[in-house]
Write a structure and sequence with these properties.
The complex is a heterodimer of chains A (329) and B (785). Chain A is α+β, with helices and mostly antiparallel strands and 329 residues long. Chain A contains 8 helices and 13 strands. The longest helix of chain A is centred in the N-terminal third of the chain and has 18 residues. With 785 residues, chain B is an alpha/beta fold. In chain B, the strands form 5 sheets. Chain B has a 10-stranded mixed sheet with strand order 6-13-7-8-12-9-11-10-14-15, with helices on both faces. In chain B, a hairpin with a 2-residue loop joins β14 and β15. Classes of the chains: A alpha+beta (329), B alpha/beta (785). Bound molecules: fe (iii) ion (FE), magnesium ion (MG) and zinc ion (2 copies).
């Protein structure tokens, strides 16, 4: 592949690989800009670069992940995504067949989500200057009036909900990346959550917060919310769903499912009385079938996340500064 | 009561001139002023004694010979709980207006003398408890200035009744009279109580409404029931030690598979009947600290149920240390299990409500009372070897007694050291006194963390302490490090990182009186800690001073497959060590050892994880070598049920064989970066051969202990030979692995054989319980230098 530096070769690449898979009316406007109709409500924008090894994993690939990740970031603002953009950095020599596979998966993910890829860009870098392919996606969405979601809305007594099992994505990636032989195939949970979120926001417009527990897992997400504040969070280990295969892989490798990345889960914090109605809404969606309440926001032990363990003790859920280093002396 | 002493002369006839005497140390709330008053009166001296911010101040006039005798008594005698650090006789004469000798009210000022540890019932109070003619006969809460609760009941300074959990109990006229009488043993005893005015026992649970709580609890215990007993610093769970069914039931209900239970025995004679004590252990058992002492099991102990201390060769014994304990013991006349009242590994409960909630399903009944335990203080645990005491847990009766530093470290900033993560303690260093908190526990436990924060506030109040620097461990994820960082920022004082293993070394040096100027080596063996180079250490020879050190030699860095999982499953360390020593051909190199891995252990996946560095950080841990050995000898099953289990089992089974065994070979290689490393490959080969020949586990364990000890000594020797500039001076042995008495004795003897002095811990734990002391000292030394 020699599609560097722009010009004909790159145009050819876009025409042959991306256009067929991304096809939609906005892209077909054929300008350097995509022109969108003025929506109702306020606009949110979110952008995310996707770098992942391996590029293909059970349950997805970098293409679908780049779509889902950004759709979810937009959705966590309580917004309905209306368009995506995609920027590719491709390493010279990257197999065209793989690129096509990624483009197909991206296009399919966007179509399934009902959100067009409105514009894009492609750059090719010299061999050795990139790791296969990097994808940056930007999402544009619309927040309905009256929806005010943010960490400043947290208050003691609110419920903490989780949309499903923890650890699937991180363990799926790990098993592929390291070529570890677990005996079972764990699939990534990579999925778009915006439809479920739209129903949640409709059911409880006053919900306080939505977060997707991606890098750093649930522990990082919850700790980030309360660190340095007057609030704490208490969760219940027994309530947190973890798939059997994920739990045994974690046990084997000494990993904690609370620290592992997810790509199709969300945490919702809401008034306690909204908890059950919201769970009912979540469970109607395939991404939220196993939604549960896992805990509460509290005024005790401010700044810390604590967890009632299976044996009935309460431990502090840690907040790792880097790689997990054992602490037992 | 007298008047506030004034040094200035009063109006009227010129007063007599006399001497001013300053007494420093632990001299408040321990009956020191009545002692001074009695001594002065007996010698016919006039003057006054009072407390102030620096200790006790005495003004005295009389014959110079009588004053000299008086000063000698101040130096040489004191009430049981007092600890006199200095008696200073000021040169300039002062006016003494008093005709008689009086006890004056406190002179005020910032009182910063701290508080004394809780103390076991004294002989006088015990005699009253057992005397049918005494008004406190059979009363569970008697105490005096020589004994009773202190740290466990205080809420804030100053230490008087209103600031303790005795506040709700108004003194009856009899108690009020004793309290006010300097000739009485209860003069100013803040927790003073009697049946008429003091706390009362309650019994809830089984048999709750069947009359006298104490009699009912005794009946329940006799009948094999488990009773939660509210003690001095927390609740215990008690049952008859001689009843195998009760012991098994307690173990099952507590969810504690194997961790040894401590026993309370009615008397020293009962203790002697269980195993050989030795003079030091006996003295320790009957001391006011009254800790749990680990006693070698004799035939008497072996007659008790095996389930008390599975796999151990020592039994933890203590004597009754409150009137309530004495009443129980006098009635039962046999040992009771007295294990901390908690579920599994969480902290002991202190509050009646929590006791009912947390111990439901474990206890059949609760023997409680209406005096609140304000501060949780666990039982201290001490063992003995040829070198003296080995403090395994420093808590009740020991904290907050300060460690007094050598003169060269006496000056410099006030340092608050935050300690480690497990077995956490903190340390307040002011002047020469390093006040180390009681054992708080594992900070990852939410209740322990809450205690740690609360105790930190309490100690800062008790010692009127504002830190000028805060010392933390280098591990960024220790909760103590996080709190220290936040506190340094809030107070605007410097944050100093004290490297883990250097802090262990500094703690040992400070405890042994080695100050700023002293060069030394530190042989530090523990589980793990973040080293100065950002990697995990755990078996290092350091050289330097208490201010700073560098690594001279150590153990090889071997993977911990699964990180924290390797601490719980010793076989992971066996696998990692064998892979490290023999590479991918390890199964062929040491087949008998390979066969000792659990059936179905994921060898391939873990080997891959190690190869790829997937949650398998490398660490030069000494503790994990012991784990690997315990796994090789099949001593601890697939997973440990408590921390330290593998090492304790290995030590216990080695002990009978140590005297006659020969050590395995351990080699030394040049290592990397000029840091020589032990090489365990020869040991694994020899062990593999032994196991192939069906060697007894105890013999192999003994051969390992000897080999490991001798290899550590060889490290010291090789560094001394190889390095021109290695530090002179003693060798400090620290880190939790030196709780192992076989190792400690053998290494100390080997170092003595090299012509160097070995220093060991005797007052603070060698493990992370002593870390805060080292952090404080190292920080003071660095900032002062
Ligand atoms: Fe340590
Ligand atoms: Mg993002
Ligand atoms: Zn007494
Ligand atoms: Zn009374």
């Amino acid at each position: 592949m020699s599609h560097g530096g722009g010009g004909r070769a790159t145009a050819e690449l876009i025409r042959r690989i991306f256009a067929p898979h991304f096809a939609n009316p906005l892209l077909e406007q054929g300008h350097d800009v995509a022109r969108l109709e003025r929506p109702e409500g306020r606009i949110v924008v979110s952008t995310d670069g996707h770098v992942i090894s391996p590029l293909f994993f059970p349950g997805g690939d970098i293409g679908s992940l780049a779509v889902h990740g950004t759709l979810n970031d937009v959705a966590m603002g309580g917004a309905r995504p209306i368009a995506l953009t995609a920027g590719f950095v491709i390493e010279e020599g990257f197999a065209l067949a793989d690129l096509e596979r990624i483009a197909a998966s991206m296009g399919a993910a966007a179509r399934r989500a009902g959100v067009p890829i409105a514009t894009g860009d492609t750059k090719v870098v010299e061999r050795g200057k990139g790791d296969g392919v990097f994808i940056t996606t930007t999402g544009i969405g619309v927040v309905p009036d009256g929806v005010e979601i943010g960490p400043d809305r947290l208050a003691a007594g609110q419920a903490v909900l989780l949309s499903g099992t923890l650890g699937d994505h991180g363990v799926a990636i790990l098993s592929q990346r390291q070529g570890l032989e677990f005996g079972t195939t764990i699939r990534s949970d990579s999925a778009a959550l915006h439809r479920m979120v739209a129903d949640m926001v409709a059911a409880a417009p006053g919900l306080a917060l939505l977060r997707d527990p991606t890098r750093g897992g649930l522990s990082a997400t919850l700790n980030e919310l309360v660190e340095g504040t007057r609030l704490g969070i208490a969760i219940d280990e027994a309530a947190i769903p973890v798939r059997g295969e994920v739990a045994s892989a974690c046990e084997l490798l000494g990993l904690d499912p609370l620290h592992i990345a997810n790509e199709g889960k969300l945490v919702c914090i809401c008034d306690a009385r909204d908890a059950e109605p919201l769970l009912a809404v979540m469970r109607r969606h395939p991404e939220g079938r196993e939604a549960v309440r896992i805990g509460s926001v509290t005024a005790e032990q401010p700044g810390f996340v604590r967890m009632t363990t299976a044996i009935g003790g309460t431990r502090i859920v840690d907040w790792l500064s880097g790689e997990q280093l054992p602490r037992i002396c | 009561m007298g008047t506030v002493p004034k040094v200035a002369a009063q109006a009227g006839p010129a007063p007599r001139m006399g001497r001013l005497i300053r007494v420093r140390g632990q001299v408040q709330a321990v009956g020191y002023r009545p002692f001074v008053w009695q001594a002065a009166r007996a010698l016919g001296l006039a003057g006054a004694v009072c407390n102030d911010g620096e200790g006790v101040l005495i003004r005295v006039a009389g014959a110079s010979e009588a004053i000299a005798r008086f000063v000698a008594q101040l130096r040489g005698e004191a009430p049981p709980l007092a600890r006199v650090l200095a008696v200073e006789l000021l040169d300039a004469p002062v006016p003494v207006p008093e005709e008689d000798f009086v006890i004056a009210a406190s002179a005020g000022g910032a009182v910063a003398t701290g508080i004394v540890p809780d103390a076991a019932t004294c002989p006088e109070c015990l005699a009253e408890l057992r005397d049918p003619g005494d008004r406190r006969f059979g009363y569970a809460f008697g105490n005096c200035t020589h004994c009773g609760p202190r740290l466990s009941i205080i809420r804030q300074l100053p230490y008087d009744r209103a600031h303790t959990s005795m506040a709700p109990f108004a003194l009856c006229p009899d108690c009020a009279r004793e309290y006010a009488d300097p000739a009485d043993r209860r003069f100013h005893a803040q927790p003073i109580a009697c049946p008429a005015c003091g706390p009362q026992l309650t019994l809830t649970g089984e048999g709750a409404d069947a009359g006298d709580p104490l009699a009912r609890a005794i009946d329940l215990l006799r009948g094999g029931r488990i009773v939660a007993v509210k003690g001095l610093g927390g609740f215990h769970l008690a049952c008859r030690a001689a009843d195998p069914a009760a012991v098994a039931r307690l173990r099952a209900r507590k969810g504690r598979d194997a961790k040894p239970f401590a026993l309370m025995v009615p008397s020293l004679d009962h203790a002697r009947a269980l195993g050989p004590l030795g003079a030091e252990a006996e003295a320790c058992l009957v001391s006011p600290a009254a800790p749990i002492v680990l006693v070698p099991m004799g035939p008497g102990a072996h007659a008790l149920p095996e389930g008390l201390a599975p796999g151990q060769d020592h039994l933890g014994l203590m004597l009754p240390y409150t009137p309530l304990h004495h009443l129980l013991m006098d009635a039962l006349g046999e040992p009771l299990v007295m294990t901390s009242g908690n579920r599994s590994e969480e902290p002991q409960v202190i509050e009646d409500g929590a006791a009912h909630e947390r111990l439901a399903g474990i206890a059949d009944a609760w023997l409680g009372h209406d005096r609140a335990i304000v501060n949780r203080i666990d039982d201290s645990v001490i063992a003995f070897d040829a070198l003296g005491p080995v403090v395994l847990r420093r808590a009740r009766g020991m904290a907050p007694d300060p460690v007094v530093l050598p003169e060269s470290l006496a000056h410099g900033p006030r340092v608050l050291a935050m300690g480690g993560e497990l077995k956490a303690t903190f340390c307040l260093l002011r002047g020469r006194e390093a006040v180390l908190s009681q054992h708080v526990g594992d900070l990852e436990d939410a209740a322990a963390l809450a205690d740690y924060r609360r105790l930190l506030d309490l100690y800062r109040d008790l010692y009127a302490f504002t830190p000028e620097a805060i010392a933390v461990d280098g591990h960024p994820d220790y909760l103590s490090t996080r709190l220290g960082r936040d506190m340094a920022q809030a107070l605007g004082v410097p944050l100093v990182v004290a490297d883990h293993h250097h802090a262990h070394m500094a703690a040992c040096l400070a405890e042994n009186g080695v100050g700023l100027e002293g060069e030394a080596l530190g042989l530090i063996c523990d589980g793990l800690g973040l080293g100065a180079d950002g990697t995990l250490w755990g078996g290092e020879l350091l050289g330097g001073t208490c201010a700073a050190s560098r690594r001279l030699a150590g153990l090889p860095a071997v993977a911990l497959p699964g990180g924290a999982a390797a601490m719980k499953q010793p076989w992971r360390n066996l696998l990692a060590h064998l892979l490290h020593a023999f590479g991918s051909e390890w199964e062929a190199a040491v087949p008998a050892l390979a066969a000792r891995l659990p059936r179905g252990a994921p060898r391939r996946v873990l080997a891959q994880a190690i190869g790829q560095g997937l949650n398998a950080p490398r660490c030069s841990s000494a503790g994990r070598v012991f784990d690997a050995l315990a796994a090789a000898l099949g001593l601890c099953g697939e997973a440990l049920s408590y921390e330290g289990q593998a090492a304790m089992a290995l030590e216990a089974c080695a002990r009978p064989f140590v005297a006659a065994a020969q050590g395995y070979p351990i080699a030394l290689d040049a290592g990397e970066g000029g840091v020589p490393r032990l090489d365990f490959a020869p040991l694994w080969r020899a062990l593999d051969a032994d196991i192939g020949h069906g060697v007894e586990a105890g013999l192999a364990a003994a051969r390992f202990h000897l080999a490991f000890a001798d290899a550590l000594v060889a490290l010291v020797d090789c560094v001394a030979v190889a390095k021109g500039d290695y530090p002179q001076g003693p060798v400090a042995l620290s880190g939790g692995v030196f709780n192992n008495r076989i190792l400690r004795e053998r290494v100390a003897a080997g170092i003595a054989g090299l012509g160097r002095e070995a220093l060991v811990h005797r007052r603070v734990p060698a493990g992370d319980g002593g870390l805060a002391l080292g952090q404080a000292v190292a920080t003071r030394a660095r900032l002062a230098a």
